[in-house]
Amino acid sequence: MLQKLTDIFRIHNLPSWYFLTPAILVGMSVLIPLMYLLVRALEADTALSMELVFRYRNLELLYNTVLLALSTLVVGTLIALPLAWITTRSDIPGRGILTLMGVLPLAIPGYVMAYALLGFTGANGTLALVFGIELPRLSGFAGALTAISLYTFPYLYLNFRSALAGLDPSLEEASRSLGYRPGEVFFRVTLPQLRPAYYAGALIIFLYVLGDFGAVSLMRFETFSYAIYLQYAASYDRVYAAWLALMLLVLTSSALVVEYKLLRGLFFHRIGSGSEKKAVTIPLGAWKWPAYIFVTVLVLLSFVLPVSTILFWMIQAFDPQQLAGLQRALTASVMASAPAALLATALAIPLAYIGVRHPSRLTRGLERIAYLGYATPPLAFALALIFFTLNAAPLLYQTLTLLILAYALHFLAEAIGPVRSALYQASPRLEEAARSLGYGRLKAFFFATFPVMRSGLIVSAAFVFMSAMKELPITFLLAPVGFQTLAVNVWSYTAEAMFSQAAPYALVILLFSTLFVGLLFTREWTSR
Amino acid sequence: MFMLRDMLHHLFDLWLYKVALTLLILALMVPLNLAAQSLTIYSGRSKALVEPLIQKFEQEHGIRANVRYGGSTQLAVALLEEGRRTPADVFWAQDAGALGAVHRNDMFDTLPDELLDLLPGRLHNSEGTWIATSGRARVMAYSSRRVDSTRLPESIFGLSDPQWRGRVGWAPSNGSFQSLLTSMRLLEGDDVILQWLRDMRDNNAQNYINNSALLQAIAAGEIDVALTNHYYLLRFRETDPGYPVEQTWFAPGDPGNLVNVAGIGMLKNARNREASLAFMKFLLEEENQLWITREVYEYPVREDVVTQSVHSSLRDIRELSPDLDLDDLSDLNRTLDLLRRAGLL
Fold first, then answer.
1. pTM of the model
2. Shared domain check, B219 and B337
3. Closest residue of chain B to A438, computed from CA coordinates
4. Strand B245-248 and strand B130-143: pairing?
5. Cα nearest neighbour of A449 on chain B
6. What is the ipTM of this complex?
């Protein structure tokens, strides 16, 4: 019997229980929302649901969604790859600050970025008022693509960056010694090794775009998530919305299968001693100026523009009384986001570990399931958890614990990628050596592998923290009554067109994310 | 033992872990917070608008209010999901549609006559399960720079005229706009409205997500005219008195002039009925009605409350607006069906 089971799942190398059990638990919890959606979807009568699923409009939505997701990926790559290379390998000054600038756009809520771009151009825009330049406002596909690319490229950037930083430079040195020119080394040796990092970042961006609502709605580009929102918002129709959400999940699953096929059989850990060796810094030379221009334009658009928009809102009508609620909101945000970031990172370790070290259908499956939580529309995710906790664990309902769990499960996918990339680079030989010296499996993992994974873990925590800080639908529905985060405040004021009152809250989100990320990276830098 | 210490040392070497762990423990200790003398409000009215009023209530009545803020629709859907187990005592929503959805699921309790009698009959639903707390009017906003106000159409149906091709903005997904459509449907019949929606779409009417976006689009020069709620412009003017947008009504009695309401209802299993009723009564007190008028720019719902603010009284507006009652407005399904058939949703 057991033999049969292990054959079905192709498990020949069973992970130890302390990695497998948490992984299975997490996988199961992520499936709760899926089950909920099925329950709701099946409530519809068949004729109606067929009519809803096979509308021509759904095809349009599908086309728009996929087009936007793929284009964002292309633009994101074009931004992230050069930036990662410049900040890890070149001799450009201020690499520390640049790294921070490459991360911070993540802290900007999507709708704030959209407002910034919209408010910048047009007849009444900042550009027209201050400089007399009247550009047409961005909207539709171009607007959505610009806005989303500008705050999602850090997902790819950080993945690239930690991969580049963790690459074994001896391979590059060997190829140089064999007569490859620098360009050839990059394209033939370095780039192929970045694949796991690229897939991880690309998957997150792809899934993010599938679920984004803020930017697409303001830019008036209709995607699935937009349509799902409209269903809940307009008709209180949990059934049609559930069907749309399930269609979205089918799309997600195909992305996951593609990534799985691409990732199969990749191993990039170093084979040698395991002692870290720093890659050579490459002088930019004549490329200095293009690099400066690229970096400046990027920072201007992705960071300076939204931040100055927020500042502009603030000075329009500043009222010190507005600051009274800030501290409470900040405490609320941090109390929920920081534990969620740590929890998600901790949960990502067993999932990524069994997926990388004990590849089998079961372990890969579990790892992929975690991504479904990310792809489930947040509103549906929150409704599912309401449904589930009220029926199975009523004591948990309306507690901060539930909110933290919800954040951690929903954003788990963001944490897995960096951990996984880090694991690919940590040689299993080290752990084996540790075990041959008499260490148990767990101990061997903590001593041999964990330290090597550190930079990946830091990135994971940063991702989840910033996402949780700006999260809205889950917070609305699952936070304890009376618990209002910074993001809830920003939304509340902007929705009422009270931009000047929203500004301080948005600014504090940014400030705190900067502090948190800065802290994480200082640890990384000092530990090197 | 030495090993264990080393391992822990590894784990805790980032002091961040310690901070996070402390936070996690603190988080688990936050009490459930369901004290006896407290009122739980689900507020679809945003914090920005109503928090001071709720604080005033807390002070005057010595009752602690726990508020969950969110979108009216999200909260309505959450209430439906929670069912009888909801911790909410009252649900205060932006529009009749959200209240109607909760009412239709039989989750609201009937309110006492002393409360209902404070309002003109049209400002609570016929079964007396929810009451209006303030009113807002649908208006036509237009660019003060590019539009001659004398050339504006007398009726909302005039906006599908070719001279407005590509110049009109609306928000088909917005609750207030959908209420307007519902009222137009009841006055003119479904076929007329479906045709109008198709004409508007073919006339290249531009879709936006909400009312603020519409006004910003006028200011930015994307569109010249938009169908919005009356108070957003007043808020834009608060920060920028020279905001290049004006607004007006259609001719008296035109289906385009709707008065819509925000309202509140008490849930059947409210734990604290006394406090719930006290809060509803509080919202209708003259002083607080005037506060809403002054700060939120909406209309008072009590006929005996007279406003001397920037806009005319609700009674005047209602003379402009066609005659309808609130039950009608909460019936959205056929409106949504029309929007889908016109390819707008």
1. 0.83
2. yes
3. B3
4. antiparallel
5. B10
6. 0.77
